[in-house]
Amino acid sequence: MDRHEDLPELIGRLAGSISTFIEAKFALLRLEIDVRLRTHARRAFLYVAAACLVLTALLIASVAMSFGISALLERRIPDAEARRALAFAIVAIAETAGAAALAWTARRLGAGSSHTASSADPETDRPEAPLVLHTRKTS
Question: Domain for residue 98, yes or no?
Fold first, then answer.
Protein backbone atom coordinates (compact mmCIF):
# COMPACT_ATOMS: atom_id res chain seq x y z
CA MET A 1 0.00 0.00 0.00
CA ASP A 2 2.87 2.37 0.71
CA ARG A 3 4.13 1.87 -2.80
CA HIS A 4 0.92 3.29 -4.28
CA GLU A 5 1.02 6.30 -2.02
CA ASP A 6 4.65 6.99 -2.93
CA LEU A 7 3.99 6.85 -6.68
CA PRO A 8 2.27 10.26 -6.92
CA GLU A 9 5.04 11.76 -4.81
CA LEU A 10 7.69 10.23 -7.09
CA ILE A 11 5.91 11.49 -10.18
CA GLY A 12 5.70 14.96 -8.64
CA ARG A 13 9.43 14.95 -7.83
CA LEU A 14 10.21 13.71 -11.34
CA ALA A 15 8.13 16.50 -12.87
CA GLY A 16 9.89 19.03 -10.64
CA SER A 17 13.29 17.67 -11.62
CA ILE A 18 12.40 17.79 -15.31
CA SER A 19 11.15 21.35 -14.93
CA THR A 20 14.35 22.38 -13.13
CA PHE A 21 16.43 20.66 -15.80
CA ILE A 22 14.60 22.45 -18.63
CA GLU A 23 14.91 25.82 -16.87
CA ALA A 24 18.65 25.23 -16.41
CA LYS A 25 18.99 24.30 -20.09
CA PHE A 26 17.20 27.49 -21.15
CA ALA A 27 19.38 29.58 -18.83
CA LEU A 28 22.48 27.98 -20.32
CA LEU A 29 21.17 28.57 -23.84
CA ARG A 30 20.49 32.25 -23.04
CA LEU A 31 23.99 32.59 -21.62
CA GLU A 32 25.52 30.94 -24.69
CA ILE A 33 23.55 33.21 -27.02
CA ASP A 34 24.63 36.25 -25.00
CA VAL A 35 28.29 35.21 -25.18
CA ARG A 36 28.05 34.61 -28.93
CA LEU A 37 26.35 37.96 -29.53
CA ARG A 38 29.04 39.77 -27.53
CA THR A 39 31.75 37.92 -29.46
CA HIS A 40 30.17 38.78 -32.81
CA ALA A 41 29.69 42.41 -31.75
CA ARG A 42 33.36 42.69 -30.76
CA ARG A 43 34.42 41.05 -34.00
CA ALA A 44 32.21 43.39 -36.04
CA PHE A 45 33.63 46.42 -34.21
CA LEU A 46 37.17 45.24 -34.92
CA TYR A 47 36.35 44.70 -38.61
CA VAL A 48 34.91 48.21 -38.85
CA ALA A 49 37.95 49.66 -37.08
CA ALA A 50 40.28 47.73 -39.39
CA ALA A 51 38.33 48.90 -42.44
CA CYS A 52 38.62 52.53 -41.29
CA LEU A 53 42.36 52.14 -40.81
CA VAL A 54 42.77 50.50 -44.21
CA LEU A 55 40.73 53.23 -45.86
CA THR A 56 42.86 55.89 -44.17
CA ALA A 57 46.03 54.11 -45.27
CA LEU A 58 44.71 53.85 -48.83
CA LEU A 59 43.92 57.56 -48.91
CA ILE A 60 47.34 58.49 -47.57
CA ALA A 61 49.05 56.11 -50.00
CA SER A 62 47.03 57.58 -52.87
CA VAL A 63 48.08 61.10 -51.97
CA ALA A 64 51.70 59.99 -51.61
CA MET A 65 51.61 58.24 -55.00
CA SER A 66 50.07 61.33 -56.55
CA PHE A 67 52.81 63.57 -55.20
CA GLY A 68 55.43 61.04 -56.31
CA ILE A 69 54.02 60.97 -59.83
CA SER A 70 53.81 64.75 -59.76
CA ALA A 71 57.52 64.91 -58.89
CA LEU A 72 58.31 62.53 -61.76
CA LEU A 73 56.36 64.74 -64.19
CA GLU A 74 58.09 67.95 -63.06
CA ARG A 75 60.39 68.16 -66.09
CA ARG A 76 57.66 67.41 -68.62
CA ILE A 77 54.87 69.61 -67.20
CA PRO A 78 56.12 72.91 -65.73
CA ASP A 79 52.74 74.06 -64.35
CA ALA A 80 52.49 72.67 -60.76
CA GLU A 81 48.68 72.64 -60.62
CA ALA A 82 48.33 70.83 -63.93
CA ARG A 83 51.04 68.37 -62.90
CA ARG A 84 49.29 67.57 -59.59
CA ALA A 85 45.91 67.26 -61.28
CA LEU A 86 47.32 64.84 -63.83
CA ALA A 87 49.09 62.86 -61.10
CA PHE A 88 45.89 62.56 -59.05
CA ALA A 89 43.97 61.54 -62.18
CA ILE A 90 46.55 58.84 -62.97
CA VAL A 91 46.28 57.43 -59.43
CA ALA A 92 42.46 57.56 -59.56
CA ILE A 93 42.39 55.74 -62.91
CA ALA A 94 44.85 53.11 -61.65
CA GLU A 95 42.81 52.50 -58.50
CA THR A 96 39.56 52.33 -60.49
CA ALA A 97 41.15 49.82 -62.88
CA GLY A 98 42.33 47.76 -59.92
CA ALA A 99 38.87 47.80 -58.35
CA ALA A 100 37.31 46.83 -61.69
CA ALA A 101 39.77 43.95 -62.05
CA LEU A 102 38.91 42.71 -58.56
CA ALA A 103 35.17 42.99 -59.27
CA TRP A 104 35.60 41.17 -62.58
CA THR A 105 37.58 38.39 -60.87
CA ALA A 106 34.98 38.08 -58.12
CA ARG A 107 32.22 37.88 -60.69
CA ARG A 108 34.06 35.20 -62.66
CA LEU A 109 34.63 33.18 -59.49
CA GLY A 110 30.96 33.55 -58.57
CA ALA A 111 29.75 32.63 -62.08
CA GLY A 112 31.72 29.38 -61.99
CA SER A 113 29.37 27.87 -59.44
CA SER A 114 25.65 27.87 -59.96
CA HIS A 115 24.93 26.93 -56.37
CA THR A 116 25.90 28.26 -53.00
CA ALA A 117 28.82 26.77 -51.12
CA SER A 118 26.59 25.65 -48.25
CA SER A 119 24.48 23.46 -50.51
CA ALA A 120 27.39 21.69 -52.17
CA ASP A 121 28.95 18.38 -51.29
CA PRO A 122 32.64 19.27 -50.79
CA GLU A 123 33.87 15.93 -52.11
CA THR A 124 31.95 15.93 -55.39
CA ASP A 125 31.22 19.67 -55.71
CA ARG A 126 27.63 18.85 -56.61
CA PRO A 127 24.58 20.35 -54.95
CA GLU A 128 23.02 18.18 -52.31
CA ALA A 129 19.57 16.79 -52.90
CA PRO A 130 16.93 18.87 -51.15
CA LEU A 131 15.52 17.44 -47.96
CA VAL A 132 11.96 16.26 -48.60
CA LEU A 133 9.73 15.20 -45.77
CA HIS A 134 7.13 12.64 -46.72
CA THR A 135 3.94 12.46 -44.76
CA ARG A 136 1.48 9.63 -44.88
CA LYS A 137 -2.11 10.38 -45.50
CA THR A 138 -4.48 8.74 -43.09
CA SER A 139 -7.90 7.97 -44.32
Answer: yes
Q: Considering the entire predicted model, what is its pTM?
A: 0.54
User: Tens-digit pLDDT profile for the chain (139 aa)?
Assistant: 455 568 888 888 999 999 999 999 999 999 999 999 999 999 999 999 999 999 999 999 999 999 999 999 999 999 999 999 999 999 999 999 999 999 999 999 987 665 554 555 555 555 555 555 555 665 5
- For residue 31, what are the domain limits? 2-106
Contact predicate 91/67, CB 8 Å: no
- Of 103, 74, 98, which Cα lies nearest the Cα of 86? 74
